[in-house]
Structures are given as C-alpha cells and as structure tokens.
Design goal:
- With about 100 residues, the chain is an all-alpha fold.
- The chain has a domain of about 60 residues.
- The radius of gyration is 44 Å and the shape is rod-shaped.
C-alpha cells in the first residue's frame, strides 16, 4: 500500500511593512506636524508685526500730511506779507542802482 500524504501549502504572507519603515514614517509624520505648527506660529507672529507696521505707517502719513499743510499755510503769500509788514518791511517805492 502506498501512502500518499498531501501537504497543504500555505503561503506565508510577509509583513507589508517592517517595523523599521513604520517607525521612520511615524517620525517623518511627526516632523511634518511640528513643522506645520512652527510655520503657522511664525506666520501669525509676522502678521501681527505687519499690522503694527501698517498702523504706524498710516499714523506717520497722517502726521506728514498735517505738517505739509502747516508748511503750505506758513509759506502762503498772505502769511508772508503780513509777517513782513509786522517786521517793518514795506514795498519798495523807488529802486536805487549802485554802480
């Protein structure tokens, strides 16, 4: 009598991912999350600084406009004429030439 023994072959499924790849991918993912948090924080801080600078710029432009108005008012012909009259200057009556 012949003994025939059948062996069921089971295919051993290898792990799709080894432990090393899982650790490296988790480390990479954690690094990217930390990078995203840092970038977000830097962007918010930069935005706040930019807002302060824009506010300061608007304030300085307003002050500059006020000063330009004062200069224009002070150098107007009416103001200069009244200031010169109060200092004793008058219109020339006759012009004398020196040779």
């Amino acid at each position: 009598m012949t003994i025939i023994k059948k062996f069921d072959t089971e295919e051993v499924k290898p792990n799709k991912f080894s432990k090393k790849y899982v650790v490296f991918s988790m480390f990479g993912l954690l690094s990217l999350v930390m990078l995203e948090i840092w970038v977000s924080n830097s962007t918010i801080t930069f935005g706040e600084k930019l807002e302060v600078l824009q506010s300061t710029r608007k304030h300085l432009e307003l002050d500059n406009q006020i000063l330009e108005n004062r200069i224009a008012e002070g150098s107007s012909l009416v103001t200069v004429a009244s200031a010169s009259a109060s200092l004793g200057f008058s219109k020339p009556v006759s012009i004398e030439y020196i040779r």
